[in-house]
Amino acid sequence: MQGIPVTWQFLLVLWLGCCSFTVSAADPFSNTRTKPLPAIALIIDDLGNRREQGKRVVSLPGPVACAFLPYGPYTDLLARHAHAHNKEVLLHLPMQAVEHAPVMLGRGVLTLDMTEQQFKATLDYDMAAVPHLSGLNNHMGSLLTRHPGTMAWLMDAIAQRGDLFFVDSRTTSATVAEQLAVEYGIPNTARNVFLDNVPAPAAVRAQFRKLVAMARRNGTALGIGHPYPGTLEVLAGELRTLEQQGVQLLPVSRLIELQNQGQPSWQTSLSR
């Protein structure tokens, strides 16, 4: 600063300091926090009975979760295949329904007339039948999931194991499964959209876009589908363009974490 009067030097230093403060003070606000991309998760149910069908599901792009019936002839093989391809493996747990006799749901079904010991023993066998388990969701269950007692037995067993999440498939509006999962501190979420109650491709595509619209509106959404030809055809196409639409496909476990962000710890980790 040679040649500049001392007074002006002082004022110049003061002015530069003020500018520096202003910039640093504004920095936290200049990097505007971007809103997270809307996110969906997908589960394909009823796997394990047909080999080629299951392999098509595993080949879908992205972390589509695979839910296996416990005693399907290809459950063990396909669950290992899914795990090797970085797909989350779920037990698609058979539960008694209002409209179907338990015998129609095959082996391993949980029923309302079981004792707690019978219930938990059957559940243990079902879980042991599916390797690389990350979580569970209910197969049928419109009767069982509305009963707090049986859902308490289920969540107690999951909590004892300590490494699984639970997804309420919401096969009845009277379900209390999600509520009991929260009470037992189980990471959980619930189905928002069934993709293929009508399995025609046009109907599946409409449901998928409903799921995406819900994620855009609420931040997250979970869809459940089945290994129908129309469902697999639609998903194979839609999932390849999902990122271009500004929507992310997440594993179910990650979606649950995202849904719990910002919530009080007591609300996400209640235990009985």
Number of domains: 2
What series of H and E elements makes up the topology? HEHEHEHEHEHEEHEHEHH
How many distinct helices?
10
Taken as a percent bin, the fraction of beta residues is 15-25%
Distance between the termini: 72 Å
Counted beta strands: 9
Radius of gyration: 25 Å
Here the CATH topology of the largest domain equals: TIM Barrel
Principal-axis shape equals: globular
User: How is the biggest beta sheet arranged?
Assistant: 9 strands, parallel
Name some characteristics of this structure.
272 residues, TIM Barrel, 10 helices, disordered C terminus
Give the SSE layout:
Blueprint (H helix, E strand, L loop, with lengths): L5 H25 L8 E9 L3 H8 L6 E4 L6 H10 L4 E7 L20 H13 L4 E8 L7 H14 L3 E4 L8 H7 L4 E3 L2 E2 L6 H18 L1 E6 L3 H10 L9 E2 L2 H9 L4 H4 L4
Parallel strand pairs: 1-2, 1-8, 1-9, 2-3, 3-4, 4-5, 5-6, 7-8
